[in-house]
Write a structure and sequence with these properties.
The protein is an alpha/beta fold. The chain is built from 17 helices and twelve strands. It has a single domain, classed as Metal-dependent hydrolases (TIM Barrel), CATH 3.20.20.140. Helix 7 links the parallel strand 8 and strand 9. The longest helix is centred in the middle third of the chain and has 19 residues. The chain starts with 6 loop residues before the first strand and ends with a helix.
Amino acid sequence: MAELPKIISVDDHVVEPAHVWQEYLPQKFKADGPRVERRGIGDMKHIGGGTYQQSFDPDGQPADCWVFGDLVYIHKRHVAAVGYSRDEMTMTPMTYDEMRPGCYEPKARIADQEVNHVEASLCFPSFPRFCGQTFTEHPDRDMGLACVEAYNNWMVEEWCGDSNGALIPLIIVPLWDAELAAKEVRRNAERGVHAVTFSEIPPHLGLPSIHSGFWDPFLRACEETETTINMHIGSSSRMPATSPDAPVAVAASLSFNNSMASLSDWLFSGKLVQFPKLTLAYSEGQIGWLPYILERVDDVWREHRAWGEVKDLIPETPSSYYYRNVYGCFFRDRHGLVAIDEVGEDNITFETDYPHTDSTWPETKQVAEKLVEGLSDEQIYKAMRGNAIRMLHLDLDRDVETTIGVKRQAALDLLGD
C-alpha cells in the first residue's frame, strides 16, 4: 500500500464555546438565550437519547453548564473525552478548563487534526444536539429560529471561517417548519455550505415522517443546492435498548440499528425517486450491516411489493437508490470492508469522532492503515477522502476525482442496466 492519503473525517463534533449565542444572537434575544454558568453537580445519570437525570449541589464537583430556559445541559467528560485514558472517559461533569482546547477552539482543533493525519473535518453540534432538536423543543419559535441562525452564523463565520477548508461547515435547520428549513439551507448554500444535519427518524422527535410529504420543500432545497443530508446516530434522541436497566453498553453496541431503520425508511419512501439527486449520509452508523439490509429490502421489493404498498412507488430495486444516493461511514468496522463489493467502494466515508469516547485520535492513521489492509490504492483513496470530497462538494483533488468519477458513472450505468 502507498502512503495513506490524508483523511477527510465526515463525523466529528464541536463543543460550542461559551460565547456563541451571547455574541451571535440579536440583542433582543440575548437575555433569554443560551448562556454558560458554572454550577456544582450532585448526581447525574443518563436516561437515554439526550435525556439525563441530574441534580445540583453547591458543594459538588464544578461543571460548566448551558442554561436555556428550563434546560440545563452539563458538560461531560465522555463528550469531550480526548486526552483522557479509556478508563477515565466517564460521565463525569467537567469545565472548559478540563477539556482539550481542540474541543471548542478552531485553531487548536486544526492542530489536533494535523497530528492525526486529518486534512479536513465535518463537525456535528453538542448543545443543540445532533440535529438541532434543542431549539425545536423550545416553546418560543422566534427564539428557536434566532438560535438556529446564530449557530449557523457562528459555524460558518468563526468555526470554519479562517480554517482554509480544514473545518467544513455543517448547519442545523428549524425542524418545525420545512419551508423555514429550506430557506435556511438556501441562505447558507449561498455562502458555500453543502451539508445539513437532520434526524434519522423524525417521528421520534414528534415530527412528521419522511413519507408524509411535509419535508418536501426542505428536500427540494437540499437537492437544488447540492446540500448533503447528514444523519447521525442518536439524532432522533432515542437509542436502541433492550430494557431500562440494561447497561449503556447495550445501547452503544446496537447504535447502528437507528441507521439501519432510517435507511430502510428512505429506500421505501419514494423520496429518492422524487428527488433523484438528493444525497444522504449516515454518520457513526458503521457499514458492516449494509450488505444484509440491502439484500433484505431488495427481496421484500421483489417478493412483497404488492401487499407491501411500494409496487407503484419504487420502480427499481431499493438497493439501486442506495448505490446512487447514500453514503455510509465507518471508523472501526473491518467486517464492512471485507464486504466492500456489497457495501460499495463509492459509498463509504471515514471518521475520527473527535472528541467523543469512540475517537481514534491521535492514532487514527495507524487504525486506518490496519483497517484497509488488502484494499487497492484506489479503494483506500475513496474511503479516506475521495468519497467525502464528492459527498461534500469539496474543492480538492480535482484531477483524481474526475478520473474516478468517470469510472463510477460507468459502474452506475451498468447497475441501471
